[in-house]
Amino acid sequence: IAKPPGAKGYTIHQDFAYLQELGLDARRIANILVCLDHCTPENGAIEFAPGFHHELLTAPGEVADPDERLFPGFEMATAEPGDLLLFTALVPHRSGFNRSGGERRILFLTYACDERDDLYGHSQTVRQSY
After folding, report:
1. What's the Cα-to-Cα distance from 3 to each of 44, 48, 62, 99, 106, rounded to whole Å?
2. Distance CA 64, CA 104 (A)
3. CA-CA distances (angstroms) from residue 93 to 121, 122, 125, 128?
4. What's the gap between Cα 94 and its chain centre?
């Protein structure tokens, strides 16, 4: 995810809301972010809503984001190039605008444990339906 200067951020969301049609166990999906640049408040570092990672916060089967007013606060994950951020697909997170003069780049990887032989092919079919 490359966020150039002036780019807007992402509103609060849980990645699992967008992955639930795959039929995966949300507790078996991990996100790994590799920071390629400094992640700071000025360039829109990721913020997490602590304590809300136990369940999907929107209606099951519905692709939607939770109401931001539900969260009393957020914790920003400032990071250095080469740092890793790991969290499950149920962790609510967001990021702000890039108000700096430089890019904020992260490599965002999602891993899922599943018994199906071709989960990747199945995910491509689901993705095409959106």
Report:
1. 8, 18, 28, 10, 9
2. 26
3. 27, 26, 26, 25
4. 7
pTM for this prediction: 0.87
Name residues of the chain where pLDDT drops below 70.
119-130
> If you count them, how many residues does the chain have?
130
The token duo for 32 is 């790994």
Residue 30's beta-bridge partner residues?
Answer: 88, 111
- What is the distance between the alpha carbons of residues 4 and 65, in angstroms, rounded to a whole number? 24
Using one digit for the tens of pLDDT, what is the confidence trace for 38-54? 999 999 999 999 999 99
Which residue bears the tokens 């990645």? 15
Output DSSP code: residue 58.
Answer: S
Residue 63 Cα to chain centre, angstroms: 14
Residue where the block lists tokens 């339906």: 129
Closest-CA residue to 44 (of 87, 84, 93, 88): 93
